[in-house]
């Protein structure tokens, strides 16, 4: 697997800060971009995706797609980016391999949408030669990306319209660490995010005339 070109490590203390950070990133995303989110349950993956959706200007109501696998949120014609890319939100937790990813036909929307895949590491890298990997870690007692299978859904919950930030209720002020890494030609340079200073992970190439 190729090494990332750069890495950003950020500290956030609330769900709102995670949302705002992701909104700033979402405003810079373009059709064809692929993001891979990793983090335990309650770490903020859905909150981060909600922020991306705000920055992209897509239809509100982003919730975890766990029991649907794929949800598509269209760009709003009267939003901040009319004519911009749709957001395709995928949960790959129950998918065991890259071949199962192929079965849900993401390639049909890859070129025209921004694709965000929760639990996608090791499953979706073949979809694009460039990607952003986003790790969300609960600083206090976090167990990393390994988590038990989600509980059975409450009837009707998958169709709820309300937007719920997915930090655990008792942990809204618990610090999170967010690590963003860029791979491939699309992400040779990092996005401009407030208060960040990327760490280059490759040696600079000496230019010759």
Would you mind describing this structure in some detail?
With 209 residues, this protein is of the alpha/beta class. Helices cover 14% and strands 22% of the residues. The chain contains 3 helices and 8 strands; from the N terminus they run E-H-E-H-E-E-H-E-E-E-E. It has helices spanning 15-26, 45-56, 98-103, and strands spanning 6-12, 34-38, 70-73, 86-91, 113-118, 131-138, 176-183, 199-200. Strands 3-4-5-2-6-7-1-8 form an 8-stranded mixed sheet. Helix 3 (98-103) links the parallel strand 4 (86-91) and strand 5. Helix 1 crosses helix 2 (45-56). The longest helix has 12 residues, at 15-26. Residues 142-164, 166-171 and 204-209 have low confidence and may be disordered.
Describe the structure in brief.
The chain is built from 3 helices and 8 strands, in the order βαβαββαββββ. With 209 residues, the chain is α/β, with parallel strands linked by helices. An 8-stranded mixed beta sheet has the order 3-4-5-2-6-7-1-8.
Order of helices and strands: EHEHEEHEEEE
Derived from helix and strand composition plus strand pairing, the structural class reads alpha/beta
Task: Choose one word for the global shape.
Answer: globular
Q: Count every beta strand, where a strand is a DSSP E run of 2 or more residues.
A: 8
């Amino acid at each position: 697997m190729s090494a990332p070109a750069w890495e950003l490590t950020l500290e956030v203390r609330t769900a709102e800060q995670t949302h705002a950070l992701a909104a700033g990133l979402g405003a810079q995303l373009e059709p064809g971009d692929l993001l891979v989110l990793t983090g335990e349950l309650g770490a903020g993956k859905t909150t981060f995706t909600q922020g991306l959706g705000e920055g992209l200007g897509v239809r509100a109501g982003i919730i975890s797609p766990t029991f649907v696998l794929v949800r598509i949120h269209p760009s709003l014609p009267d939003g901040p980016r009319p004519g911009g890319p749709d957001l395709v939100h995928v949960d790959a937790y129950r998918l065991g391999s890259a071949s199962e990813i192929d079965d849900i036909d993401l390639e049909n929307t890859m070129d025209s949408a921004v694709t965000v895949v929760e639990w996608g590491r090791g499953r979706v890298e073949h979809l694009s030669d460039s990607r952003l990997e986003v790790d969300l870690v609960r600083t206090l007692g976090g167990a990393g990306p390994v988590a038990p299978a989600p509980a059975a859904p409450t009837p009707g919950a998958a169709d709820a319209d309300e937007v719920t930030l997915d930090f655990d209720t008792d942990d809204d002020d618990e610090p999170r660490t967010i690590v963003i890494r860029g791979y491939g030609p699309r992400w040779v340079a990092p996005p401009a995010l407030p208060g960040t200073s990327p760490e280059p992970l490759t040696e600079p190439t000496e230019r010759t005339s």
